[in-house]
Structure prediction request, 389 residues.
Amino acid sequence: MRTQVAIIGAGPSGLLLGQLLHRSGIDNVILERHTGEHVLSRIRAGVIEQGAVDLINEAGVGARMQREGLIHDGTQICFAGERHRIDFRALTGAGVMVYGQTEITRDLMDGRAASGQSTVYEAQDVSLHDFAGEKPRVRYRNDGKETEVACDFIAGCDGFHGVSRQSVPRDSIRNYERVYPFGWLGLLSDTPPVSEELIYIHHPSGFALCSMRSHARSRYYLQCSLAEQVEDWPDERFWHELRLRLDREAQERLVTGPSIEKSIAPLRSFVAEPMRFGRMFLAGDAAHIVPPTGAKGLNLAASDVWYLSRALIEFYREKSTAGLDQYSDRALARIWKAERFSWWMTMLLHTFPDSSEFDRKVQLAELDYLVKSRAAATALAENYVGLPY
Ligand code: FAD
Ligand code: DHB
Prediction:
């Protein structure tokens, strides 16, 4: 088999890249380890920046998001039992789109099916070869049959645990990492959201987040210990603990119901440098992870795909390698800004097991400064709504 770009992974990064390349006449094959249903079953991000919205529209799959997505012009921060609003629109002129990663993935899958480009689900033992040279190849097994794909370029869009980053010789890559001493327990339910806007809550018992997928579907998160398992959290315990962390008005408005999904995610900051190895490029979670507090994971994946798709289109149209040569530096400049913001939001809002009384007082003073200072609120709003690509 031969293609121009072999894409590893059919998460949002791989599907979006495939769609943008296809629309520019660049042939591509996507190899995905799991089934499509499995990819759709993972409940993850919900806040989409304007840059990512524009890219999804450009990929030709934005119609449902434009119809069903919710535009949010601000967010709420709650601490010491009081809620404060950060008005994104007034401070930056922009808002964000609330629309689930699952729905984006579904829209991208539908677009992919209509494009006629090849996607191999349940591709086993994917391996990457000769990407340091001119003729890279990818091999995989499917239905007991071995296949080799010859290509011009490989895009490693296979997430944090993928094979692409692991295929790079150890002395050619440097990893930067910070692991946080807690996780997020997420619950999805068909209940109306407790508030019109997201609420980020700092509470002595731990961080909580009230988010949503629609006016009838809520997504809530609780900071939890890494020792805990989903089985330790029957729905009643979750709702009880969430209610404790809410302000009085939200406590009264909270509507509970059976969970549709519950899962625990560890929190991590991670960056691999560089993101290009000859004719192989990393994009999205394959190259970097942010803790979810700043809602940046999916948005960073989209910005990588923007830079990489532009660079590949330029290569095929103009025979120029300028964009490919600059890809890693351009993407990393943006990634480190999002890493800083996500780390800062995480430190600001969570409860740390080893923090002193002094640390907790400073944390409250910083929250107070944030909601009282226009400059501090603007800095948060600018980072949250996202920089232009
Ligand atoms: P992924 O979505 O991880 O997709 C990679 C794909 O590659 C997967 O489908 C995987 O099956 C496939 N793959 C892996 N290995 C191989 C292989 N060897 N061969 C072939 N295919 C392979 N972001 C937010 O903004 N807000 C959130 O609330 C949030 N919550 C999250 C919760 C969890 C548990 C996780 C893991 C992430 C969360 N994120 C969140 C981050 C966000 O979901 C990711 O940034 C986004 O999914 C990145 O997309 P991606 O396509 O780069 O990677
Ligand atoms: C959601 C997740 C986040 O990490 C975040 O900061 C905001 C919203 C969500 O899943 O809706």
